[in-house]
Amino acid sequence: MEMEAWYMDSSAEDQRRPHRLEPNQPASLGALEQLGVFHRKLNADIYETDPELEQIRKDQGYSYMDIITIHKDTLPGYEDKLKMFFEEHLHQDDEIRYILDGRAYFDVRDKEDRWIRISMGKGDLITLPAGIYHRFTLDETNYTKAMRLFVGEPVWKAYNRPADDLDIRSKYMACLQGS
């Protein structure tokens, strides 16, 4: 199934719901790429030996990798972690996630500060650029297994919005103006 993205409504009800506008307003891969968000589809059934994934890791310098299973039975402090992941934030480094199983959403801000929800499923690899405001949540299945990739040692620090004074945010905004 192809990755799907759309502009979100402003409802505050359950974050795991799709929150599509009525009528639906899709966001294209091209629109996401203009924001610096890139997507690849890989074969998650062979992630341990996948030559395509190995090539991506080599080309991008993703030297660190781990796997997280987000489900109430596997993640200590599950509800608190979900709340934390859903706080609007940015990072100093790119965020790279590869969905190995289950489903999840990444929400990113567009140039007009509107939310775009990106529906991720098995085999979806996404790169969010350093400095982009985003958040993460599960969908209503309440389960995903994801590979986290990093260049060098992982830095888990999230800077909750507002973080507009950070250099990385200024660099990101400058890149947006140029695209």
UniProtKB/TrEMBL annotation:
Basic and acidic residues biased stretches: 13-22
Main location (coarse class): cytoplasm
Cofactor(s) essential for the protein: Ni(2+); Fe(2+)
GO (cellular component) term, any one: plasma membrane
Keywords: Amino-acid biosynthesis, Cell membrane, Cytoplasm, Dioxygenase, Iron, Membrane, Metal-binding, Methionine biosynthesis, Nickel, Nucleus, Oxidoreductase
Alphabetized Pfam families for the sequence: ARD (PF03079)
Annotated binding of Fe(2+), by residue: 89, 91, 95, 134
Gene3D superfamilies noted in UniProt: Jelly Rolls (2.60.120.10)
Cell compartments where the protein resides: Cytoplasm; Nucleus; Cell membrane
Pathway stated in the Swiss-Prot or TrEMBL entry: Amino-acid biosynthesis; L-methionine biosynthesis via salvage pathway; L-methionine from S-methyl-5-thio-alpha-D-ribose 1-phosphate: step 5/6
Record text on subunit structure and interactions: Monomer.
Cited function: Catalyzes 2 different reactions between oxygen and the acireductone 1,2-dihydroxy-3-keto-5-methylthiopentene (DHK-MTPene) depending upon the metal bound in the active site. Fe-containing acireductone dioxygenase (Fe-ARD) produces formate and 2-keto-4-methylthiobutyrate (KMTB), the alpha-ketoacid precursor of methionine in the methionine recycle pathway. Ni-containing acireductone dioxygenase (Ni-ARD) produces methylthiopropionate, carbon monoxide and formate, and does not lie on the methionine recycle pathway.
Protein name per Swiss-Prot or TrEMBL: Acireductone dioxygenase
UniProt organism field: Pleuronectes platessa (European plaice)
Source taxonomy: Eukaryota, Metazoa, Chordata, Craniata, Vertebrata
